[in-house]
Amino acid sequence: MRVALLVNPAARAGAHTGAATHAAERLRAHGVQTSILSGGSAAESSALLRTAIEVGVDAVVVAGGDGTVNLAIQEVAGTGVPLGIVPSGTGNDFAATLGLRELDVTAAADAIAGGVTRAIDLARVTRADGSTRYFGSVLASGFDSKVNDRANAMRWPRGGSRYNIAILVEFLTLAGIPYEVELELADGTREHVVGDLVMATVGNGRTYGGGIPICPDADPADGLLDLVLVRPAGRLRLLRLLPRVYRGTHAGVPEVAMRRVRSVRLSSPGVTAYADGDPIGALPLRVDVVPGALTIFTPAG
């Protein structure tokens, strides 16, 4: 097996920790031919990976976090080329959804060498200009995208605790945002929601922000996306909601609506959405599920 291993040294905290080197050594010990690709920018990394796929690698591996994985997803989606993940970035939510433990490089490399794969869904975002992009875990808009704005601007602390601090700071100025949401349910029924929301979140995976289970029941292989809408309430009321979000038990809260959808269109003035932890575009955006679009390596058993 010939593998292209992508590492992004420009990532905020991740792949330069040595995970890529360790993973490459482990794969080679299994007899897997491994070439490390390292671009100086996202565009260069994508170009290197695209060339490797065109030349003919058997698999792509990413050592890094959600942002670097997202780069690889754009190139391998729909190709049948399997993707392996060595979770070693600031946020590893997509890997966690797939059952891969953060920084367990040996287990991740062994899963790739084992060759067991499965097909999972991706979400495809269509922007107002018609351009598209895939994501694997969660798209955030509203309060949680503002949290991402703040967390990404922070240089300290690293890891998931940045999101906790950003949540508390943004909470101080929390207010409802006017939204229009058009959605298609699993049975083809359409719904139209107009009004103020605190946030609108679309999940292919379960967690974001370093492990927050915003879509606790999401299954990346069920052919559907999980939509979470949170309506405004008093600040004290919403503050009580936060611990339930962290436990993934917020489904029963009156201000929270959850739907399983095939597609959803989100509109709101001045709101930028984030997906897999990075900005993906300003609303309005349409999000569709693409069943079985990605082949991934998975731990045996």
Automatic annotation (TrEMBL):
SUPFAM superfamilies: NAD kinase/diacylglycerol kinase-like. Keywords: ATP-binding, Kinase, Lipid biosynthesis, Lipid metabolism, Magnesium, Metal-binding, Nucleotide-binding, Phospholipid biosynthesis, Phospholipid metabolism, Transferase. GO terms for molecular function: ATP binding; ATP-dependent diacylglycerol kinase activity; metal ion binding. PROSITE patterns: DAGK. Signal peptide: none annotated. Coiled coil: none annotated. Pfam families: DAGK_cat, YegS_C. This is Diacylglycerol kinase.
